[in-house]
Amino acid sequence: MLDMKWVRAHAEEVQAAADGKKIKVDIAVLIQRDNERKALLQQTEEGRRLRNTLSAEIGKLMQTGEREQAETMRAQVKQLNDELEQKEAELALIQEEVTRLQWLVPNVVSPDTPAGLSDEDNVELRRVGELPEFDYAAKDHVELGELHGLIDIPRGVKIGGTRSYVLKGAGLLLHRAVQQLALDLLLRHGFTPLEVPLMVREDALVNTGFFPTGRDQVYELQGENKWLVGTSEVPLVSYYADEVIDVKEPVKLAAVSTCFRSEVGSGGRDVRGLYRVHQFAKVEQVILCAPDAAESERMLQEITGHAEELLQQLELPYRVVAVCTGDMSQKTYKQYDIETWMPSRGAYGETHSSSNLHDFQARRSNIRCLDEQGKLVYCHTLNNTAVASPRILIPLLENHQQADGSIHIPKALRPYMGGLERLVLPVCEQDEERKEEI
C-alpha cells in the first residue's frame, strides 16, 4: 500500500506501474472517489457536530421550561438524524470502494527496472559457471530419478493428483541436504531461523501483498479463514506486524517450510517432472531494515549473493536477470531472478528470486521503526529464495550426471549425504545400460 498523499502527488507514476504490472486499477478514479469520500466525511462530521449542539440546547430549554422551542429543535434533530443515516450509508459504500481500489494500487518500480511484457523481456546481468558438454545421450531428471530410484511420479499422482510426486531414498536425502546446506549458509550470515505457521489468516496475505491480486494461487481451508502459504515470506514478515522494531542493524530472518501453490494459469506448462508442482519446500530469507533506499539496495545485493553462493557450492551454472515490469508482482519495487542451467530444457530455468519492496509491505503490515529524528516511519522489507526443492534437483541431477550413469554429488553436499561422493546405478540398471550400449 502506498500513502494516498504520495499517490496523489505521483498519480502518473503509479498508473504507469499498474499498467506495466498489468493490474487493472484506475488511479484517477481512486483519487476522484477518495475526494468524494472526504467530502461526505466532512458533511457527516458537520452533521454530527450540529446534532450534538442542538441536543445540548434542547436540554437547556427543557430546564427553563421552553418546551415549545425544545420540540421544534427535536424535529430538527430528527431530520438531521435521517439525513445523517443516509449520508453514513453512502459513506460506508464509498469507503468500501476506496479501500478496494487502494488494495489494488501497486508498488512503483525502481528506475533501473527494465520495461517489458513478460519474462522474455527480463535482462541478463551476468552468467556464472560453464555449461556441461555431454558426448553421450544425456538423460533428464525424470529418467535419472527413475533409474536411481529417487523419484516416483506415477505413484505421487495416484496419491495426490496432477503435479504430485514422491521422493524416496537418496532423492529425499538430496532434497533435505540442499535445504540444510542453505540454512547453514544463512546461519553463517547472521540470520535467525524460525519455525513458522504454514496456515495463516487472510489479513497476513493481504498485508504482505499476496492478496488481492494473487488470491487464485493460494489454497484456502474452507470455513476456517485460513490459507496455506506459498512461501514463508508471509509469516516471516507478519511476525512483526503492528510492532515498532529496532533496525539499527537489519533484522535477518530465515525459515525452512513446506509450501503450496495452486499453479492456476499454468496448465500445459512444464508438466513433465518436478519443475512446476503443487507442494515443495523452501528456505526463505527475509530482511527488515531502515527505510533508506541505499541500505535496502545493499541488502538486495547481499541476499542475492547468498543464493549465488549456494549455487556455486552446488557446482551449478546459472545466470542472474533483472526482472522487467511485466513479470513483477504488485508488491515489488525491484527484483532479480536467478536461473540455473537445466540441460533437458536446453535453457536456464528460474530457481531463485530476490525482491526489494521498500515500505510497501511494512505499510500494509504496520511495521515501523524510529528514524534518526525519533519519528516513527515504515521499514523496508526484502526477501529471497535461498533454495527451493524439488525444483533445484532438476539441475542438480542433470548437470552432474556421468557417462557411466552415476551422478556426481558436489563436495558441499557430501557431509549431509553421509560422505557419499556419487550415486551409482543399481546393478540391474547397470546391466540394462550395457545392453543398450551393445
**Based on helices, strands and strand pairing, what is the structural class?**
alpha+beta
How is the biggest beta sheet arranged? 8 strands, mixed
Mean pLDDT over the full residue set: 94
Number of helices: 13
Using the CA coordinates, give the radius of gyration.
28 Å
The counted number of beta strands is: 18
- Unreliable residue stretches: none
With strands numbered from the N-terminus, the spatial order across the biggest sheet is 1-11-12-13-16-10-9-4
Distance between the termini: 65 Å
Strand portion: 15-25%
Assembly type of the chains comes to: single chain
The helix content is: 40-55%
Shape field = elongated
How would you describe the overall organization of this protein?
- The chain is an alpha+beta fold and 438 residues long.
- The protein is built from 13 helices and 18 strands.
- The longest helix has 38 residues.
- The N and C termini lie far apart (65 Å).
- The model has no long low-confidence stretch (mean pLDDT 94).
Sum this structure up briefly.
The protein has helices at about 5-10, 10-20, 25-65, 65-105, 140-145, 155-160, 170-190, 200-205, 235-240, 295-315, 360-365, 395-400, 425-435, and strands at about 125-130, 150, 165, 190-195, 200, 220, 225-230, 245, 250-260, 280-290, 320, 335-340, 345-355, 365-370, 375-380, 380-390, 405-410, 420-425. It is α+β, with helices and mostly antiparallel strands. The protein has an eight-stranded mixed sheet. It has a three-stranded antiparallel sheet with strand order 5-7-6.
